[in-house]
Amino acid sequence: MSLNDEIREYLLSNPHLMRSKYADTAKKFGTNYEQIRTVARNLRKKNPDTEPKEKEVISFQETKTDAILTAENCTRVKSLEDLLAACQVDLDNWEVAKYDIGTYEVTGFDNDRNPVTVTMFRTKAFLKRIEPELNIKLVKQQLIEDLRNLSPKVSKIKRKRPDDRNDLHLLEISAFDLHLGKIGIKGDKYSMDIAEERLLSAIEHLLYRAQGYYIDKILFIVGHDLLNSDRDWPVPATTRGTPQFNSDYHIDMYRQARKLMIKAIDILSEVADVHVMVIPGNHDRESVMHLGDTLELYYDNNKNVKVDNNDCLMKALPYGNNLIISDHGDGPKIASLPGIIAQRFKNLWSDTVYVEVHRGHYHTNKAMKLQAIEELNGITVRNLSSMSATDYWHDSKGFIGNIKKAQAFIYSRQNGLQGILNYNVNV
Predict the structure, then answer these.
(1) Strand order in the sheet with 405-412
(2) What is the pLDDT of residues 227-250, one digit of tens each?
């Protein structure tokens, strides 16, 4: 018996190999892939019904904790995404642990009895069920629904306005770098309650002193190292991992910050509409982003408060001829600001005359004016002070003696900055 006869006999006995696995059959007979395929083609011509076409098989087998997805003999399921869609997997409940995609060729015939080779896909995926307490997407959605239900429904307050729009003013309240949870050095006592008392006293003081102007809108900046750290585990640390000494657990710091910000915003909204600008710091970047989400949802039904919590770490508010910009100050160098502002806020900048940039981070009061290019107005950059205590690190480096204060800035809609108000902490 010739080798071809042996191969024919073997294929006829194993019809499922008539269209696939030619390489395995070639290895069995010590020949090559082409000889096996040629013999198989000749057999199919003489016996067209020898091997019916393999049917597509898609399965989804699951247990309480795991699942296996399988797609065989497929031409339409070619990727993990195709497999998940074909099995209608709910990714809110399942996550992919691993997957594998393989291909093989199957030869058939067209209507004219010409051979046609098709690439088939064999796809398999192993899934793990997401535990409810670890399902971040689900937890976030539940939090959103809870907060929306708790969001007070506050109608737009009808406020009396002067007829002359030139008499309208924006009041910016800037109380940066509170560092809730910081521990002060001996002789500079500090706690979360002290920080809250300082902020609320500053707001009361600055609102009182701004009474001589008609306040059309209030800009309140939340963040700028509002919290002293971003986490507790494995040790209390900033966003980048610098260890910190804290007076309280992080969750308690976060909760106090949330309650304090709501209290402050509610006080301000009694005077004028409030624009809340959320600016994460280097100590609390993630925590303040989460806090911004909370404030955004809490004030969802309040027509007098707008929360700007977009992803950009540098934010801007146009007001008449003014453009007020804030970022924490730990990122771009001051000399780079004109170019950054010209690109990021080019449409806003072109419509304004007066540009102010307010930054925190350094806990000190300093101002300078930058000239972007000759025909443009200058940009005033201010590093603003902090009301927080001096901690051990700052004391060891000699960063001491700065006046603890919050500030307010009053902008005329037409004529730019009109006044700067200071609230100095009594120490």
Answers:
(1) 305-308, 273-279, 214-223, 168-174, 405-412, 416-424
(2) 999 988 888 899 888 888 898 998
